[in-house]
């Protein structure tokens, strides 16, 4: 299971590393459960054409406001959007997982929701900040189920 992610403050990186660790444990118990391959996208990344299906993890950083009629413009995470656009990489994306801070109400996970709308893939799951162990397990199960239904 391939995961492309972008991490600004380290929260997304921490979450996907916990997810990868959990995946290893699940794979050890039952080899039908996939392990996770992580690829961090950042402003210095060399863009390349993706060849295998993947999931995208993206935090939310916006320019303020309320996320409804203002403050819904993506900042800091544009590199992931550009990477998905590059060579139509988005076509291999099986879905997006968003994160953020629930204190921001309508802006919570708005970047991931915008990606889903723009690129036509599903918004699969969310978690707050670095997520909990329950979030890791829930998100992993969602990814496994999505993988089963989309990759033959």
Keywords:
152 residues; alpha/beta; Rossmann fold; 4 helices; 5 strands
Describe this structure in words.
The structure is a single chain. The protein is an alpha/beta fold and 152 residues long. It has one domain (2-150): Rossmann fold. 36% of the residues lie in helices and 18% in strands. Strands 2-1-3-4-5 form a 5-stranded parallel β-sheet, sandwiched between helices. Helix 1 crosses helix 4. The longest helix is centred in the first third of the chain and has 19 residues, at 11-29. 34% of the residues are buried. The model has no long low-confidence stretch (mean pLDDT 92). It comes from Enterococcus ratti. InterPro entries: Flavoprotein-like_sf, RNR_NrdI. One of its GO terms (molecular function) is FMN binding. Pfam families: Flavodoxin_NdrI (PF07972).
Number of strands: 5
The SSE string, one letter per element, is EHEEHEHEH
CATH class group: Alpha Beta
- Would you identify the regions where 5 or more consecutive residues have pLDDT less than 50? none
Strand order of the largest sheet: 2-1-3-4-5
Structural class: alpha/beta
Rg computed from alpha carbons, rounded to a whole number of angstroms: 15 Å
CATH architecture: 3-Layer(aba) Sandwich
For CATH, the homologous superfamily is named as: Flavodoxin domain
- The chain-level mean pLDDT equals 92
- The CATH topology name reads Rossmann fold
Strand content: 15-25%
Helix content: 25-40%
Largest sheet: 5 strands, parallel
Distance between the termini: 13 Å
